[in-house]
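Lab notebook, bench 4. Still working through the backlog of constructs that have no structural model yet. Next entry is a single chain of 475 residues. Request: give me the structure tokens for it.
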Amino acid sequence: MNEKQTAAFETARQSRDPRFDGRFFIAVKTTGVYCRPVCRVKIPKPENVVFYPTAAAATEAGFRPCLRCRPEASPGTPAWQGTSTTVTRALRLIGEGAMDDQGVNEMSDRLGVTPRHLGRLFQEHLGASPITIAQTRRLQFAKRLVDETSLSMTEIAFSSGYGSVRRFNDHFRKVYARSPGSLRKKRVTEEGGAFSIKLSYRPPFDFAALLEFLSVRAIPGVEFTSERCYVRTIVVDNKPGRISISNDASVNALNCKIDVDDSRQLIRVVDRIKRLFDLNAIPEEITGRLSADKQLARLVGRHPGLRLPGCWDAFEITVRAIVGQQVSVKGATTVMGRIALAYGSQSSYGLLFPGPEALSKLDPHDFPMPVKRAQAIKLMSEAVLAGELQLDGSNHASALVEQLVAIKGIGPWTAQYVAMRALNDPDAFLQGDLVLLKVAREKLGIETEKELINRAEAWRPWRAYAGMHLWRNAG
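Model written out:
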């Protein structure tokens, strides 16, 4: 951590700046506790604190989480911020539970690096080992379940990825110096069987813009939106469920109602919701880079806190991208609804979007779309089933783009759109998009695609956010 960064963190600590919540943690040497920058305790003297980039790093150094500010409830550590792409991919895999049943060796194999090299990268960029990061993820989620649900301690242990209740209790006591049961202050009643969890974000957060984006693309029968809420059916580990998301700007958090049959699905559901709504973004840094372009700055200033929409399922969004080639958003949404109805399945939670096995049997003549495009969906589904197309996040964005364009009927626009939404790639850029080109011409004085590509070099690594601002200003 350099002097400039340390000075910025000290200023944020003194002012309890919510924009820095989750970006670093404050360990207090005199108490042995680490806190969020927004913690309301008496501010310790500068000589008594140490800054850590992640909660895992503070834990690895021997500090305990603060029970007042609850570090586990802070916005997530931004995976793209200053890290290597290998670390980013590894964090995504950890979020998907890659180390719940396997170890570092298996994850390293999926990433194409040695365990030793992966460990060096984690220490360099996150200040902790992959194992500590994974363990901290489990423990933090368990603490949230203790505080926010009425699950038994046994259910919490297995829901958080622990192999046994004993291992959960031992880890909890080691970190918190007390039993998990002693920290449960009250029983929380789930509404209608659904679990309610709050997920924090860094302000500003343009929830309305994100909701509008998802609304016009909502798959009929699968996704539902209102002015304040997003609802959809989900599938995790082949088990159905439903999520409902709304915003509580008063506490800078999303209200998430998660309806699943098995609480062990919760931890993965929460990770996916965070990616879908881009909760780990740092608006201040994104805006700072994009606003260096004075013409673009005017567009950025109109929509502070604009987020990059992710997706619930990478396969689903790939189908959407193929369907959406050279047609209107409304037309693509209609076709997606027909695909869901024809090849999806019904559950107690509603219509579920079909997976690759179902769409590998798709008849290219069944839908009002070019046969070649429908054939591309079929070929893509077959590639996923054969393991030739990796949509699990282990791929680098450029590798995913190469795999996609190698499939007949999939072009660069489609591949970049999938990288942006499926991998949450903040630098994915759809320079050939007709709407982006039109707005760039009207608002930035750019005439050609080549000019746009050259201009966008200054927007790295946030070109995807720049693209969202251009799209947002199209109307």
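Notes after review: The domain at 195-277 is CATH 3.30.310.20 (TATA-Binding Protein). The chain is about 45% helix and 10% strand. Flag for follow-up if needed.
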